[in-house]
Amino acid sequence: MPQRDKSKYTDKQKRQAEHIEEGYEKRGVPEEEAEARAWATVNKQDGGGKKPGGSGLKKSE
To answer: Which of the chain's termini has less CB crowding within 10 Å, N or C?
Structure first.
């Protein structure tokens, strides 16, 4: 499964996701699964990326 662009996340959110991911990996969760769970946790806590710029999807005219 392709990973989405993380440019809309703040530095704090990126650090949080990395810390959460490391915790999952210490518990024996595979790397890709740990990353997915970490970003899901950050999204649940903060509601997604906080930087302005929209969804990045092209709008029809």
So the answer is: C
Domain that holds residue 29: 11-44
Question: pLDDT digit string (tens) for 38-53?
Answer: 999 988 887 777 766 6
Q: Is 39 part of any domain?
A: yes
d(CA 11, CA 32): 21
Total tally of structural domains belonging to the chain: 1
Other CB atoms within a 10 A radius of the CB of residue 50 amount to 11
As a whole number of angstroms, the distance between CA 44 and CA 2 comes to 20
Query: Would 33 be classed as within a structural domain?
Result: yes
